[in-house]
Specification:
The chain has one domain: DOPA-like domains (Alpha-Beta Plaits, 2-Layer Sandwich). 28% of the residues lie in helices and 25% in strands. The chain has a five-stranded antiparallel sheet with strand order 2-3-1-4-5, with helices on one face.
Length: 118
């Protein structure tokens, strides 16, 4: 399966994953993305949140910004992993079949969505 992000949807999130030893790098990456591109900057989580099993920060953007921000993130992320997923209203597909990666994929905790399957 090709995990390269593609601009096939209207709106997106990018989740930058980090650990204690890469928190400063991730924080600067998020601030630089916010400054350089037309993205909304989410909270900087120093704990797992939702399906994200490690610390993360979220960027929000639309298809018009996709072709600018995704290559920019890939160029500037260093060793950080970045999840790029669309916002479609189907959170399960967003985080599984429609999820794409910059860097090493991280296994998500999709069990948090089990209640939605019922």
């Amino acid at each position: 399966m090709d995990l390269t992000p593609k601009n096939d949807f209207e709106k997106y999130h990018a989740h930058i994953y980090f650990a204690e030893d890469s928190a400063d790098q991730a924080h600067q990456l998020c601030l630089d993305a916010w400054t350089a591109c037309h993205v909304a900057l989410g909270r900087f989580h120093r704990k797992p949140v939702g399906p994200h099993p490690v610390w993360s920060c979220q960027l929000s953007f639309d298809k018009d910004e996709f072709d600018r921000i995704v290559p920019w993130l890939d160029e500037h992320r260093g060793e950080l992993s970045v999840l790029v997923h669309p916002l479609t209203g189907d959170v399960i597909a967003e985080h599984t079949t429609d999820a794409r990666w910059l860097g090493e994929p991280v296994e998500l905790n999709v069990e948090v969505f089990d209640a939605l399957k019922k």
